[in-house]
UniProtKB/TrEMBL annotation, chains A, B:
Lineage: Bacteria, Bacillati, Bacillota, Clostridia, Eubacteriales
NCBIfam families: cinA_nterm (TIGR00200), molyb_syn (TIGR00177), PncC_domain (TIGR00199), PRK00549.1 (NF001813)
InterPro entries: CinA, CinA-like_C, CinA_C, CinA_KH, Competence-induced_CinA, MoaB/Mog-like_dom_sf, MoaB/Mog_dom
Name by which UniProt lists this protein: Putative competence-damage inducible protein
Family note: Belongs to the CinA family.
Species of origin: Ruthenibacterium intestinale
């Protein structure tokens, strides 16, 4: 079944509101195995609305409308759709009584305009609206079987329950297959490199797999179509196994959890705690960790040490280390991580130091150079990132992303790829640099 | 000029992402006096994309595309548009060098796929992308003057600066009248109260004024239309004066600066420094302050003290104060602010303690209860927020927003409305509660 979504409303065309209905409806239709080919937004203009409706009816089996069911004269959706689908509207006394009741419940009398909302299809069916005055409706083309139009009011608080209570069951009853999706989140491999590694897996027909790049992570969505849910789930699981073969522990979750959620939940499961020491990220790492409900169980202390003097005093970074290697160095990152781990009495400590830009870069230490260190009981790991051509915010976000992944790997006792490791307490002894991490 | 907006991307049709680009572009075009008649979303499908482009070109003068400029084979937008507008693509060595540089700067080699992004129009022009590899482009129909298509990449962080830096000035240059906007940012008055205070000012025809509510602040955008820029600017300034009369120092800027930018720049001008102590916001305040380039001049230390024991040890909050009033109390907020001010040797100190939720609330101290304190040399101010019916993230963001405003007011020596004030060093002496702030 081919579908399209049509939103009617000038406020969308002016950018006054976001078209969240299109996202909601698209997601719901996809879950039902119905393919959405187009989303359209058109204003409250008779001629343009008419042409949009006629074209959409021509090329698609199911149109889902949001908006344009209001009480004012410029709300034309149902008249226009009724004409296109060979139906007519009739005045419905029962609907009028409901609308009047809606107003009297607020101690108000119904404006005359709202009578318009009591017109419903002669052949089509009504959809009850428990949260507003405009009923929804479903038209089936009277001259061509299998062509449908669903009309829903614009406010999401009305549209969403109406879709879930009435439209979804009706569509599910017509469908002959089920769609199931599974999401893998991948950290530590760039999108194009990932594509080279698993490119062939992306060309399958069923299940399908698609990549979505985010800042310093990639989301893989696997979607299977089958006769029943159990089969679709199994197909997804089997296909996901191929991705695990190729990507291993770069996949940090197969849930909807973000990396910070994954890290906090992993620490909870393992009964471990973490403390953070941040320079260029200025608290962004601790803010991400503490955005997760319940994080106080695994996180008690974060220090945002912007000045060198504070790094020494609060974290115990050695004056000589700062002098010898500079604040942006693997040695200082490591001492920050070890220092905050000690100060907090935590299982793991993280240190981040770098140059977020746009100023402050030198040829030797350019903007985007960041060292991230993670300290455990016996080993401290440091990685070097060079996040160039990005904004300050992207450098900072990417740095915290890599820091979170290092905590995850510490908590799960996994390898730390691309990192330099050394025995705890010895950072100032190591010289030279660490290899640049693939960001 | 009639325009339409076309987003290309299967992830939109699946409902995986919200079409925020359509809102951004619609709003920007409206501000330029350009009417948007349609918004369309279509997938990465050659035939459907082709038909959408041809129809849109037929009925509109300006098409603005987002997405479909990626490096993979299914990204077809520019080939399709070039054909419809009678242009061709040529391989651009300079663009290739830029893309290669983008990769080599990360120490990586460019995947072969990305060569596709170096194709640009023969007749049209390129739009520079400072935040990604895909250049944008502007086509003018080679057979029909005055028909344009603008192509921008999908990620908002790339699209928005490209539109503002290149497309907006280009469109403004084609218009016969000049539009000028001035933005006032208002902190500390809720949207409905604001509307009561300045409602009549919102009904003017030229200049127009529109309100946009954000988390704990409201943006007023004044837009004037005139024959020349100077006149439009003066109209905006005069109209803004009426808002200043009504709202006074609740207006924190008339630039595009965010509250954190305003605070950092104000501190720089006044030569003052600030230190932060955060509990429920977990570093979000310091992250916001340090997101501003150059913030190291005014910020050296932030402590994220989640655990009580850490509040005592790191900030010197008294054990008795925690025992007597609890961690979420005006007294502890004040001691945190004074403690971190002392520890950092800063001019101002901020303390935030509260219950961000979703768990941890009690009837006496519900989720959303937050105390924010700001300490100066002689006085410490505390405000009580009750941010109810919101998510954890909104409670945290709102708290930092109010903290930033208190720093601004300290730096500018302004009153602290809705706050309780007491002499520095005496927080544990004051009992009772502070009035709830209008959030």
């Amino acid at each position: 079944m081919k579908a399209e979504i049509i939103a009617v409303g000038t406020e969308l065309l002016l950018g006054d509101i976001l078209n969240t209905n299109a996202q909601f409806l698209s997601r719901e239709l996809a879950a039902l195995g119905i393919t959405v080919h187009y989303q359209t937004v058109v204003g409250d203009n008779a001629a343009r609305l008419e042409s949009v409706v006629r074209q959409a009816r021509e090329r698609s089996d199911l149109l889902v409308f949001s908006g344009g069911l209001g009480p004012t004269e410029d709300d034309l959706t149902k008249q226009t759709v009724a004409r296109a689908y060979g139906d007519e509207l009739r005045f419905d006394e029962e609907e009028l009584a409901k609308i009047q009741h809606f107003f009297s419940a607020w101690g108000r009398t119904m404006p005359q305009n709202n009578r318009r909302q009591a017109y419903v299809p002669v052949h089509g069916r009504k959809i009850e609206n428990h949260n507003g005055t405009a009923p929804g409706m479903i038209f089936e083309d009277t001259r061509e079987k299998g062509k449908y139009a669903v009309l829903l009011p614009g406010p999401p608080k009305e549209l969403q329950p109406m879709f879930l209570e009435t439209v979804r069951p009706w569509l599910a009853g017509m469908s002959d297959c089920v769609l199931h999706s599974l999401t893998l989140r991948v950290m530590g491999i760039g999108e194009s490199h990932l594509q080279e590694k698993i490119g062939s897996l992306l060309e399958n027909e069923n299940p399908t797999a698609a990549l979505y790049a985010k800042t310093s992570e990639v989301v893989v969505r696997i979607t299977a179509r089958a006769q029943d849910l159990q089969t679709a789930e199994e197909m997804c699981r089997n296909y996901a196994a191929l991705f695990y073969d190729a990507l291993g522990d770069h996949i940090y979750t197969q849930t909807e959890d973000s990396l910070e959620e994954t890290v906090v939940h992993t620490l909870m499961e393992k009964g471990k705690t973490v403390a953070t020491a941040e320079s260029c990220t200025g608290g962004l790492l601790s803010a991400r960790l503490t955005s997760v409900p319940g994080s106080s169980e695994v996180f008690q202390y974060g220090a945002c040490t912007y000045a060198n003097e504070v790094k020494e005093r609060v974290l115990g970074v050695k004056h000589e280390t700062l002098e010898q290697f500079g604040a942006v160095s693997p040695q200082v990152a490591a001492e920050m991580a070890e220092g905050v781990r000690r100060a907090a009495g935590a299982d793991f400590g993280v240190g981040i130091t770098g140059i977020a830009g746009p100023g402050g870069g030198t040829p030797e230490k350019p903007v985007g150079l960041v060292y991230v260190a993670a300290a455990g009981e016996t080993f401290t790991y440091v990685q070097k990132l060079v996040v160039t051509g990005r904004t300050r915010e992207m450098v900072r976000l990417s740095s915290t992303q890599h820091a979170l992944d290092m905590i995850r790997r510490l908590a799960l006792d996994l390898a730390q790829p691309g990192c330099r490791a050394f025995a705890a307490g010895t950072p100032a002894n190591f010289t030279g640099d660490t290899p640049v991490k693939d960001v």
